[in-house]
Amino acid sequence: MPLPDWPAGVPSAPQRGSFRISRPFNKPVTSEFEAGNTRDRPRGTLQYRMLALEIRMSGAAFALFDAFVAEDLAKGTRRFTMPVWAGNAVALRTVKLAGEDKFTTRQQGRSLMVGFTLEVEL
Fold first, then answer.
1. CA-to-CA dists, residue 50 to 5, 84, 98, 117, angstroms
2. What is the pTM of this model?
3. What is the pLDDT of residues 57-70, one digit of tens each?
4. Sign of the C-alpha dihedral, residues 107, 51, 79, 75?
5. Is the dihedral of CA 38, 39, 44, 48 positive or negative?
């Protein structure tokens, strides 16, 4: 089954100052030794990066986004593809909305600021 794509009518560029890498990689598996030192190993073969961001949306764009999350993503539980700012360029990535709330909104003038955390496959 193909993954849903980010809706064409919804902006994907994060607002300046809102883009933050909250976790660059999966937490490693740590083994302790009798001498007191530890060894870290990567957990699993698929790594994820957690990105927090806010996107400015019009009312119409938010309505598309809200329907996309509710219907296409089964209330935010499915993975999807989205253009993601990688720090130096935009790349199409497989992502998932992270956290219990999935997204938050706040009014800013006539626009809505929609904030969410993405789990981005590396």
1. 19, 12, 8, 7
2. 0.86
3. 999 999 999 999 99
4. negative
5. positive
